[in-house]
Amino acid sequence: MSTSQPPEDDSFVAVPGLGQVKGFTTSDGVSQFLGIPYGLLKTRWTRPEAITRFECGKHDGTRHGPRCPQPSAADFSQLSVPGFPSSPLVVQDEFKCLHLNIVRPSGCTPASNLPVMVWIHGGGFSIGSNSEIAFDGIPLVKESISLGKPVIYVSINYRLGYLGFFASAKLLVESGGKSVGNYGLWDQRLALEWVQEYIEAFGGNPHAVTIFGESAGAVSVHSHMVAKSPLFHQAIVQSGALGTCSPVTLERLSACQGHDRLAEALGFTENVDLQTMRGTSATEIVEAMKKTFKGRLAAFTLLDDRQMEDGFFPPDTDFLGIQPFCKRIVIGDCENDVTGPPILSSHFSMIANVNRGLLLR
């Protein structure tokens, strides 16, 4: 595929069923499409619904979409990195944060059939977004082009903290016994379903998808590897796995990030109902998270929903064995992951080195 002569309309993509996406092309031959919505969220603490049509049939992908509500990294001393370039300032919106970014070589067409790499960010399931400067994907795509192995890069947002990983017995009663919690994982799965359905319009091959992530993103990757939804074909697990961050029972999860803990942080009694808690603002929920973790990096836990109806995790999984649709795996760790100022520099080098190795294969 030649990328030296992109067509004049290279920044516009017609996505069957959804509408048209407008992006932009950089001077070095890479196109970006930002903030593409993949999911709808109508009610807090429910699973997302798939987007079936862009509003008015069009999406402006020239600017970042909203972040999922979260504390600032400055609220956690472990993430302070003096002098590191700032990420773009974007608004936060609980109900409009489910979107993804796409970076591709210029000149792609639906016939390009390029491999796809889907990035799931880390951050303890409490912070992070696809708008972070470390995750914009341009260096990775440029490197892939220089190696003669061009890829398309996708980065996704998902719900975080109490908004994404809260669960309670009251929610279980409300659902009639159907699985609750793990909403951030359900968001990720819906994003991967979107990739399967629509990435071909951007020049990607839905049958050659690699998912990769670091820290909580790696735990997420491993979670999708043990689930039974064949939405990818390769995986890169960077500094995190279910064995080191094992899902816990609803009883144990409730003790650290459940109903009573959140109610107390919001200033309610433990008898407060879900409707009242849903009536609080996302800002109040974020402040409650900061109060709960008292300035420490908030690390949320996944729910072991194997025995619940329609859970994310299959009833027969031991959280170790992976599904046969995942054909290749790269596993490694990141030096100084959440242990000191070098966190982001090691972050860069790990991503670059692991992915360069995969691209060269």
Brief descriptors of the model:
single chain, 361 residues, alpha/beta, eight-stranded mixed β-sheet, three-stranded mixed β-sheet, 13 strands, 18% strand, globular, disordered N terminus, disordered C terminus, Type-B_Carboxylest/Lipase, hydrolase
Structural notes for this entry:
Helix content is 27%, strand content 18%. It is of the alpha/beta class and 361 residues long. Strand 1 and strand 2 (19-22) form a beta hairpin. Keywords: Hydrolase.
Layout of helices and strands:
Layout: E1 12-15, E2 19-22, E3 24-25, E4 30-37, E5 39-40, E6 49-50, E7 58-60, E8 99-105, E9 114-120, H1 138-146, E10 152-156, H2 161-165, H3 169-174, H4 183-198, E11 204-214, H5 216-226, E12 234-238, H6 250-257, H7 259-266, H8 274-278, H9 282-293, E13 328-332, H10 343-360
Parallel strand pairs: 2-7, 9-10, 9-11, 11-12, 12-13
Antiparallel strand pairs: 1-2, 3-4, 4-8, 5-6, 8-10
Helix pairs in contact: 6-7, 7-9
InterPro entries: AB_hydrolase_fold (IPR029058), CarbesteraseB (IPR002018), Carboxylesterase_B_AS (IPR019826), Type-B_Carboxylest/Lipase (IPR050309)
GO molecular function: hydrolase activity
Pfam families: COesterase
